[in-house]
Amino acid sequence: MCGIVGLLLKKPEWDGRLGELLVPMLTGMTERGPDSAGLAVYASAPVPKLKLSLFQLHGAMDWAGFLRGLTASLPGEHALQDSGRHAILTTAAPLEKVKSHLETAAPGLVLLSQGHRIALYKDTGAPADIAARYGFRELTGSHAVGHTRMATESAVTPAHAHPFTAGEDFCLVHNGSLSNPHEVRRKLEPLGIHFDTDNDTEAACRFLEWRMREGDDIEAAIERGFTELDGFFTFLIGTSNGLSLVRDPFACKPAIVAETDDYVAVSSEFRSLAHLPGVAKATLFEPQPRTIYHWERT
Amino acid sequence: MSVVPMEFDLARDQGVRALNSWLHQNAGPRPPSVRVLNPDGAHNIAVGANAPFDVEVRGHAGYYVGGMNQLARITVHGNAGTGAAENMMSGEVRIKGFASNGAGASAHGGLLVIEGDASLRCGISLKGGDIVVGGSVGSFSAFMAQAGRLVICGDAGDALGDSLYEAVIYVKGKVASLGADARFEPLGDADFEALATLLERAGLAHEPHLFRKVASARSLYHWNADANQEY
Fold first, then answer.
1. DSSP state letter for A136
2. The pTM is what?
3. Is the ipTM, as predicted for this complex, more than 0.90?
4. Do A270 and B119 touch (CB under 8 A)?
5. Residue A251 is nearest to which of B40, B97, B119, comparing CB atoms?
6. CA distance A2 to chain B (A)
7. CATH 3.30.70 domain locations along chain A
8. CATH of A50-115 given 2.40.50, 3.30.43, 3.40.1350, 3.30.70
9. Where are the beta strands (DSSP E) in A28-85?
């Protein structure tokens, strides 16, 4: 099992309510995924600088000290917004320089996401606790992708939780399991693509993002995924300006979509959508197998 | 004498467990009708009923609504999640909206009516129940269905009736593809009569003569050593 949720707000005036609408969607999927949860939130407008989500794997983190060290080693503008083991860093410094600073000065820090809109949170524990820990209810933005995990194939750690990210402003959550993640990985690693975990979903995420960097649009990348990724899946993908959804040809894993004039909401099950305003009048449908759905903020 | 219907509001403190245990403990000869409010996609609503209750579910149901039903008439005024009326023994389950995967799976008896579409694997391993779908069904419907009837007023997806035993399918619309060992067969008088009865019970106005029949060619009933594993 696992639960996936996604919400795209069609009108900017709703952006302030993103977290408030999304938290009950996420916690509504607790029975499907009680061991970990995560959320990727896309800001209403991109920051011109780089936006990085950082997570301290073990123990407490001295964020003020980290910021002083970063400023000393890479003079320029840096801003840090931290909550416990998690922080969002916006910086004018080049990515490679920030990365090498992280490796030497803060080896316990993991880079969860990078881009201009995306902020990523993931951790182990009950979805409601994680939502409270990182203040999901207060988050704002245009769209978001969330996941509750019931691990079936790799360890329960924050790094193994979803969403997975690759490249910039790209994330993916998965309900299902892949049978050939190692084959995909053996194909990508020689191309210089680095993997953070042994999780099957990470292989799908890196494969699709690689295809898009090679020039495929999201539809073409997913189409190629049908032949390269073997297994069961409902994938929900977040990109800079929208959401994409796809189920495997056997539709083994559930999904339901509710669409109104104000939002598109995706979930594994209706019980996560029941609280949404206007859902009684929403267009409700189950996505067809092997069919790509894509929604953008216009 | 008017009987006040028993009401369970799942949004309040009466959860699905309270509803189902009440159903299990009040199986008298003339049970009152039951209204379920704010189902909001909860799983296992009215599972294991064992008396002729009238159960009205006012909204969308989650997984296994009306599962293992005996005798009760259960109506969902909304959509149903995976496995609606799975393993039903008798009675009637009616879904006013659409039903997700595996509707009517392994049903031994009774009637399941889905007024909208049914998703994949509708009537998988059907064992004697009847299913009438007002809309279309997804792929692999009636897979390994052993007995009973599946009526499809719309279209069918791929592999309809794959590895069928003695269940019979009637389909009005297009069939994307038939499954292994399923074949079209001509309809006889008994078929038209059965179809008319089922459509009438379902409350769906369709002309029986516009349906085609799919049944087992029975070529998989016995092991064929010459088939070279190619079916």
1. G
2. 0.95
3. yes
4. no
5. B119
6. 15
7. 50-115
8. 3.30.70
9. 36-42, 50-56, 78-83
